[in-house]
Amino acid sequence: MPPEDDRRLVALYDAHAPSLWRYVVHLTGDPSGADDIVQETLLRAWRSPRILEQAPESTRSWMFTVARNLVIDEARSARRRHEIGMAELPDPGRSDGTDALFEGLLIEEALAGLDMEHRAVIVHAYYGGCSVAEVARRVGIPEGTVKSRLHYGLRALRLALQEKGVTR
Question: Is residue 46 part of a domain?
Answer without folding.
Answer: yes
